Amino acid sequence: MASASVNAIGTATADAALIDSKLSPPQLGERLLARFRLSSMLHASLTKRLVCIAAPAGYGKTTALAQFVAQLDGLGIRSAWLSLDLEDNDPLRFMRYMAAALHRADPELGRGVLAQTQGGTMVSLDSIVASLLHDLTAHKERLLLVLDDFHLLHDENVHNRLEWLIGHLPSTVSIVVASRTRVPLSVSKLRLQDDLLELDGAHFGLDVDEAADLVQRVSGTVLEAPQLEALHRRTEGWVAGLQLASLALRESDDKSTFLADFSGSDRDITDYLGEQVLDSLSADLRDFLLDTAVLDRFCAPLCDEVRGRSDSHTMLGEVQSRNLFLSGLDRTRTWFRYHHLFADYLRGRNQQRNGDAARAICLRASHWFMRHHLPHEAVRYAFESGDIAHAADLVAEFSSELVQYRGEHGTLLNWFSRLPQTMVDVRPRIRTGHAWSLVLTRRYAEADAELNALEKMHVTEEGGDVRSEVEMIRCVYYALSDQALLARTTSAAWLNEWPRAAAFPTGVVANVLAAGCCVTDDFEKGIQALAIARRAFTECGAEYGLAWASALTTLIAMRQGDFPQALEHARHGLARVEQKLGVASYAGSMLTLLAADICYELGELEQAQRYLDLGRPFMDEHGLADMSLSGYLTRARLLRLRGDMVGADVCLLEGESLGHRLRLPRLVRLLSAERCVLRLSTGSFDEALRLAHSYGFVEYPGGHVVEPDVGVVREDSVELLVLRLRLARRVGSEALGLLADAVRRAQHNGHKAQLARLLVLRAAYQYRNPERAQEALRTLDEALQIAARCGLQRSLLDVDPAVPHMMKSFAGTRTSLHADSGQSIPPSYLHRLLSGAGRRVEVHDVSPASGERAPVDTLTERERKILRLLKAGLGNREIAQNLFLSEATIKWHLHNIFTKLGVRSRTSALAKAEGISLL
Questions:
Q1: If DSSP codes are grouped into helix, strand and coil, which group holds residue 252?
Q2: What's the pLDDT tens digit per position in 319-348?
Q3: Cα separation of 867 and 501, whole Å?
Q4: E-strand spans in 39-108?
């Protein structure tokens, strides 16, 4: 079946099944040991941001936490629980389960993440974490999240994102991490802030009174004080050791001899389990324990399947009645697991049995999980059974779903690495899933190679769903790697060749076609493609695809120069996204970043900042370059208007670095051009010229500008930049001729907004010649008539430093000018322009371009945050990790901070900041 999903173009609807038992604490027995001392310490955790529990198996961590969580309801405190397993090393799976756990605690939490990940894939881990943080910050009630068995997580991406989340949690939220080993998180900052509680085996061990209670409950025996103290000393309060000793006491005829011989060591426990527990059971019950020991979790139907019997429900009841370390995993007591120590022992005993029997059990378990559509366990037990061919078949069956609908690229890539290449080559479905994963994780060179290999295989023969899917992935690859012409041609060909394809893939490819048409100015065809996409996504209920259609509709309106209409499209799309997926989401950020760009253009600067704040956490994660471009440009321009020229330049450099890293030349080119424009805005023409030369926009031999023909420059902003550099150095008919050529191109291509900007540039050029001042104002009048229909404001004022002054002159003469032209400009529009021009002049009056040192209050929020982290004792590397920046960027920020504060060292910077109450 030709079905696919992609984060940047659309999302299919699919139920990303969650294992319910992972989201609940184990069920507690009726007679629980009261642990007042431990309970008191755990209650203290409610005042901490993070609680790290590290204690070996058998110390009762899970049981104690389950008891603690059960007490929270009575205190009006919400709690969330997540039991971890090895599959959670896939970062997206881990984040999805964490969102599900939070959602179970409060339906308002994690809703956006679940809606997006269940409806399709999101490449960005950072965006998911940001969405969760947004939910938690808005949540005003106290909340505790427990992550149990954390020692099973070893993926650094998981650790890093969790560290970031913990570091930004509101004071109402606490996270408890329980592990057998030291928790691999950086906690030094939290420790310094007294925001960390650390507990170990010594805290979880039973004291003498608690040991006495446990022994009496399990064995029915009241020990004398010396006997109890000796037992406690030998076990060192180890709960599992005391429980096993109590079970032995219950069965022992000579309790004194047993207590004298029992050492409490691991070896003693092993001997006891073997000699006293297993060997005393009936053969049927012993076989049941050994057969099911290979299963991490199990239910009666699964046990029946793997054992080929029908008495598992009875057997489980007997295991429970004998207190043989069985834990219930859900409220219905359907799913169970053995205590880790007991399971480890049983698996050790299993190795002494027939190996073929254990492999057969794993294979039957794999088939059972496959039938119940639980791919992770189905594939895991297939590998453990040694039947690699069966494992390969399962990977082929589940790969598309795992990557397209769940976004678990790490899991698929791990499976892929475990399969022999010969098995992969004869199963194209594995390779299509692999290609999807490579595309969606932005490994474009590898993706291209894999797609080339698939296209050379038999899947390129006539007919076949696999060929349709491969060609669709190729379309998406071109779109995400910013190859607009190829995206347009291949997607148009796909739609022609597969007219009866399913709704979702049709919508995906139609969105790709619209994206390609937008960049190449084929607006009519792009609008037609979006109509196809909307119909298709509405048919299959793909909200993510509809969000992308809204974003692309907005982009086309922006490219056409109709900014009021573009804002209406963006807000309409946001209204639907807010209802279905949440604004603080990857899908929402597509529209908020575009809306920020539009609001900047319309002069709605405060609203632009609000939209930017919503979309900024996702700025680096968008599949199409246009959304990231809007984010970086808007942020840099707002910083420039506030007088923070250094911050604006750093912002553009960060975006440029992203473009180089992802091999997106258009993103690099446009942000590079903006860096040159930034220097022109401060009057630093020579610096702008040198920078433009370094980027290849112009050639600069001997101080003369000799550039390539402007006609080959396709991006509007680059065209404006090169023309400004030409006009600043050249006079006479040649320069105006080049500008006239650019005006004709804009008219021919239907670029109304660009036409208005070019006319403003011509007017500014004329205005500098006193003899042509009136001509300049007439040219400006023509430009403003076009600009008013487009809604342009900021880009006109940003065209040239002379524009604000020219606007004031124009205001005084506009009546006579309109009489000549026969047309008028709405007074409200002219008022907004004049107001913006006044603000622009005010900004330049305080610009550091004058050569004076910027005042201290121009430190950006990021620079202030770096100062606060410096004060907390963090080094460059730790600061970089905390802010998700490179160390080089942190050094750049420090240089700028020192310059603004007039200091040369960290110590001096902190002293200066403290002295003026900056921190």
A1: coil
A2: 877 767 677 777 777 888 887 667 777 887
A3: 56
A4: 50-54, 78-83
